[in-house]
């Protein structure tokens, strides 16, 4: 995180929401709204994100979630000024547990989550990008797990980072704190696409449109299966995947999709 990001105040007043939400045509957009603090993850913002994700999980009309940020930066991680205000181990345990709960809520959300990264994403901000199912970045975006520069190994960001980036590059990021470019993040698998800033909205819209065009039941079942099978042995993963495939085959949309393929027509999904 740049030094000036550490020094800024909270960047919002009680009249300015720290998290914005807009639902449009099956897509929920969550906007981190602390631009003066580079959208740092304060306790309040973490709580707001967790609460909103819980609401979205219960809404079957929502098919995709986009997490984005106001201002020039995506997210520099935790609010360091707030963290230093309570130098107690119990407080830090609760804070990092709350952050982990928010990240897990993204993974467990039935809907795919896309990170729209327009700028800086460091520490827990880089973790947030890695945790989202998909990520689209502007060419100007930069990524780092920079806690090591302040004497703090980014342990919780390492969990998500190491599940996206190969072992040696991930450890290099964690132990050096060096920034990587958006292009390097693409090569290492941290993001899916890199586009000019002017094309960022269009690239996210293209990705959401492709998901919206698919069967909702297949996407929901698929996301849950994808993450659960990764926790199993190879034999267990195949057995679990076979069960999910069988259940998926019994869905009305699967029958419609197969019939449409055989009849050479576009499918008409029933589960929207």
Q: Can you describe what's shown?
A:
The chain is of the alpha/beta class and 272 residues long. The protein contains twelve helices and nine strands. It has helices spanning 3-7, 43-57, 80-84, 89-108, 124-131, 155-161, 167-176, 182-188, 200-212, 216-230, 234-249, 252-262; strands spanning 19-24, 27-32, 64-69, 113-117, 121-122, 134-138, 142-144, 180-181, 193-195. It has a six-stranded mixed beta sheet with strand order 1-2-3-4-6-9, sandwiched between helices. Strands 5-7-8 form a three-stranded mixed beta sheet. A hairpin with a 2-residue loop joins strand 1 and strand 2. Helix 2 (43-57) packs parallel to helix 4 and helix 5 runs parallel beside helix 6 (155-161). It is globular.
- CATH-defined superfamily of the largest domain: 2-enoyl-CoA Hydratase, Chain A, domain 1
Order of helices and strands: HEEHEHHEEHEEHHEHEHHHH
How far apart, in Å, are the first and last alpha carbons? 41 Å
The total domain count is: 2
Structural class category:
alpha/beta
Number of strands: 9
Q: How helical, in percent, are the residues?
A: 40-55%
Strand content: 5-15%
Task: Tell me the radius of gyration.
Answer: 19 Å
What is the global morphology? globular
Please report the number of helical segments: 12
* Overall pLDDT level: 92
CATH architecture of the largest domain: Alpha-Beta Complex
- The CATH topology of the largest domain turns out to be 2-enoyl-CoA Hydratase, Chain A, domain 1
- Please write the CATH class name of the largest domain: Alpha Beta
Instruction: Give start-end ranges of low-pLDDT stretches.
Output: 1-14
Question: Major sheet, described briefly?
Answer: 6 strands, mixed
**Biggest sheet, strands in spatial order?**
1-2-3-4-6-9
């Amino acid at each position: 995180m740049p030094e000036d990001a550490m020094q800024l105040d909270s960047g919002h007043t009680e009249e300015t929401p720290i998290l914005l939400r807009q639902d449009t045509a099956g897509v929920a957009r969550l906007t981190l709204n602390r631009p003066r603090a580079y959208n740092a993850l304060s306790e309040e913002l973490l709580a707001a994100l967790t609460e909103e994700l819980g609401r979205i999980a219960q809404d079957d009309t929502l098919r995709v979630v986009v997490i984005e940020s106001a201002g020039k930066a995506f997210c520099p991680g935790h609010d360091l000024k707030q963290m230093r205000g309570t130098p107690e181990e119990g407080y830090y345990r609760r804070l990092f547990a709350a952050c982990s709960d928010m990240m897990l809520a993204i993974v467990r959300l039935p809907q795919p989550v896309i990170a729209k990264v327009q700028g800086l994403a460091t520490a827990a901000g880089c973790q947030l990008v890695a945790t989202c199912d998909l990520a689209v970045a502007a060419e100007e975006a930069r990524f780092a797990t920079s806690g090591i520069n302040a004497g703090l190994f980014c342990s919780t960001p390492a969990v998500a980072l190491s599940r996206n980036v190969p072992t040696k590059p991930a450890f290099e990021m964690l132990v050096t704190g060096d920034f990587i470019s958006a292009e390097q993040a693409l090569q290492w698998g941290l993001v899916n696409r890199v586009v000019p800033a002017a094309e960022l909205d269009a690239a996210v819209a293209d990705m959401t449109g492709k998901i919206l065009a698919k069967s909702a039941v297949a996407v929901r079942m698929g996301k849950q299966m994808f993450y659960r099978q990764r926790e199993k042995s190879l034999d267990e993963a195949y057995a679990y995947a076979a069960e999910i495939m069988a259940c998926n085959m019994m869905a009305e949309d699967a029958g419609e999709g197969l019939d449409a393929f055989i009849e050479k027509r576009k499918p008409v999904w029933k589960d929207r």
